[in-house]
Amino acid sequence: MKKQTAGHEQLGAFAPEFARLNDDVLFGEVWSRESKLSLKLRSIVTISALIGKGITDSSLKYHLATARKNGVSQEEMAEILTHIAFYAGWPNAWAAFRMAKEVYADAAPSENHGGFFGLGQPNDAYAAYFIGQSYLNVLTKPGEALTICNVTFEPGCRNNWHVHHATKGGGQILICVDGEGWYQEEGKPAQAMKPGDIVEIPAGVKHWHGAKKDSWFSHLAFEVPGENTSNEWLEPVSDEEYGALEKK
């Protein structure tokens, strides 16, 4: 997280100890404890607490903007504020909504997708193996034993048929976290996926997955550790194959 300096800039001369606690402890230490709570969740907790106390001044606007930077989409923010209204009071929520509209005024449509884990960046490195636009948000650090990515598909987007190879172990696990999509193994009917649905894909199984025609779709992809692992990308899912599923 970017180092906070507002306390030193605004109160450093008048209240240097308060400025230090604000910048170095609150933001420098507490907000930096991402291993305990994600920045996105900390933002949600913070705006909920401020609105609950009736604080709808510039500090709330700052934290609404920070929440957006930390991955809270416009749709999620609208739902959060609607929920808070029933517990913190309707006038407080109205005041928060006015600020949130300003903060999200220039939000791109894609920014409202990706689920709790965020949209990430355009998945350009693998664009040759997808029909349509996809996005990738790598959640684990390089070198960690388990690779976890949040993959988001625009409506109608799907990846090619492919196989995860391994001489031992390997394979992949998918967990749908947002929207609706499809998963299909060769020789089997396609299955619809909604948030909470889990698919376990053994190594050596030919398959594909992607969004439904009229829905964004995000899933976590867990790469199961194994020996001599590799991906083999195959033919695209044809429009005829995909269109037949959408008619069901």
Sketch the topology as an H/E string, one letter per element: HHHHHHEEEEEEEEEEEEEEEH
Q: What value does the average pLDDT take?
A: 89
Number of strands: 15
Cα Rg: 22 Å
3D structure, described in words:
By secondary structure, the protein is an alpha+beta fold. It folds into two domains: 33-109, AhpD-like, CATH 1.20.1290.10; 115-246, Jelly Rolls. Helices cover 34% and strands 25% of the residues. It is built from seven helices and 15 strands. The protein has helices spanning 6-11, 16-30, 39-52, 58-69, 74-88, 90-103, 239-246, and strands at residues 121-122, 130-131, 134-138, 147-153, 158-159, 162-165, 168-169, 172-179, 181-185, 191-193, 198-201, 207-211, 217-223, 226-227, 230-233. A six-stranded antiparallel beta sheet has the order 1-3-4-13-8-11, with no helix packed on it. Strands 10-9-12 form a three-stranded antiparallel beta sheet, with no helix packed on it. A hairpin with a 5-residue loop joins strand 9 (181-185) and strand 10. The mean pLDDT is 89.
Task: Describe the protein's topology.
Layout: H1 6-11, H2 16-30, H3 39-52, H4 58-69, H5 74-88, H6 90-103, E1 121-122, E2 130-131, E3 134-138, E4 147-153, E5 158-159, E6 162-165, E7 168-169, E8 172-179, E9 181-185, E10 191-193, E11 198-201, E12 207-211, E13 217-223, E14 226-227, E15 230-233, H7 239-246
Antiparallel strand pairs: 1-3, 2-5, 3-4, 4-13, 6-15, 7-14, 8-11, 8-13, 9-10, 9-12
Helix pairs in contact: 3-4, 3-5, 4-6, 5-6
